[in-house]
Amino acid sequence: MTVLKTSLRSFFAHKWRMLLSGVAIVLSVAFVSGTLVFSDTMTSTFDRFFGATSADVTVAAEEVEHAQASGTARTVPAELVERVRAVDGVADAHGVVETTNLTVVDADNEDLGSGSGAPTIGTGWGPVSQRAMELVAGAAPAGADQVLVDADTADRHEVAVGDQLTVVSTATGSHRVTVSGLVDFQGSNPGVGYLVFEPAAASSTLLGAADAVSSVAVDAAAGVGDAELRDRIADELGGGFELRTREENRAEAMKEVGFLDVLRYGMLGFAGVAVLVGIFLIVNTFSMLVAQRTREIGLMRAVGTSRRQVNRSVLIEALLLGVIASAVGVVAGIGLAQLLIQAMDAVGMKVADSSLTVKPTTPVAGLLVGVLATLVAAWLPARRASRVSPVAALRDAGTPGDVRAGRVRAAIGLLLTGAGGVALLLAARAEETADGAGFLALGLLGTLVGAVVGAPLLASLVVRVLNAMVLRVFGPVGRLAGRNATRNPRRTGATAGALMIGLALVSALSVVGSSVVASASDQLDRTVGADFIVDSMGQPLVEEAALAVRETPGLSHVTDYTGVWAEVTTPDGVGRDEELVAASPTYATDVRFETVAGALPDAFEPGAMSVPEGFAEEHGLALGDTLRVDFVDGDGAELTVAAITSEDTVIDQGAFYVGFDTARAALGDGMPLNVAMFAAAADGQEAAAYAALKDRLAGFPQYHVANQADYKQQLEEEIGGLLNLVYALLALAILVAVLGVVNTLALSVVERTREIGMLRALGLSRRQLRRMVRLESVVIALFGAVLGLGIGLAWGLTTQRLLARSGFGVLEIPWPTLALVLGGSAVVGLLAALLPAFRAGRLNVLRAIATD
């Protein structure tokens, strides 16, 4: 009980010193619990949505593995509805039309797709769709030229009843329709846009067949289980169909939103970085508090307090800090989740406030993370406190340093860093990507832990260099600041180490991102000869759009490009499914791929194809060998190997090439739509042809027209946007690290109160004192930045060498970005020192000198 009272008294006596450490725990736990609440809410939203829109049993056409992307959805005959309705145990059955193979365009040629990336679904207005939505404005569609639009999409794009829209269906082309009414979801909308047709029009417009439906939705009679009814229907219909219960449909649909798991674990990973950085802060806080309480601890030991009790006293303080801060963090996490949900609402993913999902495991996880991290961080200072000799403590105001332990720690740090460096070297020189990835992981861990452990040794060396380079110009004040920074290398190393982690990740990702962009740009310059690229952006190019490209004036040629699935059988009898690239012969001039044998133009001739170098080596293929190619949903053909392509490329790496006409002869009407098109301008017509091409495709905003400059810019923006998102998430860890600098300086000012009083008495002005504290902060921040940038460069260089095996062979080091990070670190140091410097300047000289 005495130990508990002592711990409570000490905790509340130092409550303001604990504040910044508590803030770090709050931020870390908030990120963890907020991520869990947000992901659980999104998952439950999708789960409820899929459950509400699923029937007891669904009957659809059997899925064909590697079916050709012809743009036409799988269908079943409409007459199947009556057959299913007649099965014993069926209460009712309805034909359902539902497809995502469409784009909706408004009068300004803008795509009405969801900003969240979710698809726009075309369906029919009937009993099944009315389970999930209700008419809230206008009237139901009365003909093929009328549609309903969901209210969220209408609100986002300012669509009203009576407006004209264009529906571009991959099955039937473009259709002008009028908005007859608006529908709203009976529950949360996970961001899906809906366009609802009159039932007969839905079949003919979206499926291209008036006598077909996408599936049959079946309602079970009372007392009949879903699984039992599914089996009865299967017995009646025989093979060729795929039957699923409501739960099976929901589970299958949830697989389609697997990005939620990626988002969840990605954000938890960044939260883990923040927790790790927070541990550094807590270690520093408790180490300094223990050092400042050395006399008090020594007195406790002298009057009979055991080492275990001293250890327990410090850990109880840590437990109090962890519990209080973690509880606040859990509450803050729920607020953070609501902010994230509001952000998703802004991009079209509407989630009702009542749908916020807080599972019992979430606060438990948040508390565990915060409390365990705090206890782990406080264990070392607690152990150090328990080992202080009572006589030594009463004689000296500070905890004596263990020189031998410092040397052992430095040796371990150097050993781990060296081992990590060797692993990075092995990763860079590995022949197999899988082996390289394993060595890279070991290298990242080894260098990170080694730098953390060896940071005190590095602090003594690097800070002296920084003193000479940065602080010398500030005269005696600069020398005092430098001496303060090196006075306790362990503390300086721990403070800078927290900042190092975040900046190492930032610099590594900057190198990788810049190298990827530079490599892709280099590949475009070296391999792409086409002047223009029409990218389908995930939607196949409808024939109208393809025809518009072909009829554009000023073009010397146009190249069709798509993917076709086939089973490729080698002469040794080994067959495997491959997606072949089917393209026009002009593709050989649109790209300049290297071949290890033969010429690429020959591969597009009738009866010919190309194979990648790896495939040829694996099966011992040479020019002139014949492969059996059986196209999915089409005929087979004997094709001759006319070229073997190098795999030293980013574009179409490992692709099999075949002529567009060869594939069309085997597939007929089942030939997939183009996924891209390439074009070259006639001499002197580049600008005019580019403008004409954009104008011809203005009514198809789902497709992107680009010249090579546009394509490079798009690539840079995509990778830049991804990096900015990562940087924003890493900002939490860096913020926690900055709090660590503030905390270290604040406690350092308290620790050096008497010394500061003596300096003031000897003539140091308040302005000089504040400058000294600020310079100390700057040098600590710069030390962390130098350490982080150095390690990050090593990580980035190694990762780039691994990526070089996939064609990303250009190394690009973003020196301006790294310089900005270094300069920003100095600014961070200045900002972190504002409050501690202000407090130091306000100390009363006489009271400071009298402080024991």
UniProtKB/TrEMBL annotation:
Residues 23-234, 492-691 form the MacB-like periplasmic core domain. It is found in: Cell membrane. InterPro entries: ABC3_permease_C, MacB_PCD, Macrolide_Exporter_MacB. The chain crosses the membrane at residues 265-291, 314-341, 361-380, 410-428, 440-463, 496-518, 725-750, 775-797, 817-838. Residues 270-390, 728-844 form the ABC3 transporter permease C-terminal domain. It is a multi-pass membrane protein. It holds the Pfam family MacB_PCD. Keywords: Cell membrane, Membrane, Transmembrane, Transmembrane helix. Belongs to the ABC-4 integral membrane protein family. This is FtsX-like permease family protein.
